Amino acid sequence: LSGLDPAQPYFQGTPLEVRLDKSDADFVDIIHTDSAPTIPNLGFGISPAIGHIDFYPNGGKQMPGCGKNPASQIVDLDGIWEGTRDFVACNHLRSYKYYSDSIIYPDGFLGYPCASYDLFQSGNCFPCPEEGCPNMGHYADKFKDKIKRGFLKLYLNTGEARDFPLWRYKVTVTLSGKSKVRGYVNVALYGSGGNTRQYQITKGTLKPDNTYTAYIDVEVNVGRVTKVKFLWNNNWINPTFPKLGAATITVEAGQNR
């Protein structure tokens, strides 16, 4: 039984027989997309974990792409009806859009078990544990026999628009060079499954021999990594033409460590 952002008003905090609960089926998975308090945030979705596994994409409260200005949203790519509806209840309706995307991407929407969204964002719950991570949406039930705890809270990030799934990687870069400079470092991943755009690993002071780590959510499952593109820029013309390189770059995929 899949709960697509089950309702908060009149249901949150009520007895089990009133609301959706994991006793309602052999396996209950929940996608929370609008779980901010109804007052004053107008959240429509229930916030506590109520299933065997509960997914909180983007933290479960505010979905990327839902903060667009009203005019752009009402005349949406999907037409005026879809746009008007999205303007009124964009976060709430993201749940069924993630679900429909999950049918097309059986390897997408990996939910990482974590105590909170902040810990997930900072990389504390990376990579997936030994038993792997469940997939939010249509294929969540593949994880049914691996649940060890009473409630399992899972976090992930999604894109702003279709296609929604993102894949999480940890990228560690150790710099080489002669002198420190200011600027930024970008990395793009190339692999058997496709290539990513550039992602920023760090910005500010760049020191040779220092190591910088970032967790990036990319738009393609790269598969076996075949190449990493390293790019740095110091934002302004420097007459000394400083040189900076990457001594090592390590890429770790969340799904298979």
TrEMBL record:
PROSITE patterns in the record, alphabetically?
A: PLAT (PS50095)
Q: What keywords are assigned to this protein? A: Cell projection, Cytoplasmic vesicle, Disulfide bond, Hydrolase, Lipid degradation, Lipid metabolism, Secreted
Give the superkingdom in one word.
Eukaryota
Its subcellular locations are:
Cell projection, Neuron projection; Secreted; Zymogen granule membrane
Under Enzyme Commission nomenclature, its number is 3.1.1.26
Q: Which PANTHER family match?
A: LIPASE, PANCREATIC LIPASE-RELATED PROTEIN 2
Q: Which family does it belong to?
A: Belongs to the AB hydrolase superfamily. Lipase family.
Put simply, this protein is called Pancreatic lipase-related protein 2
Species annotation: Dryoscopus gambensis
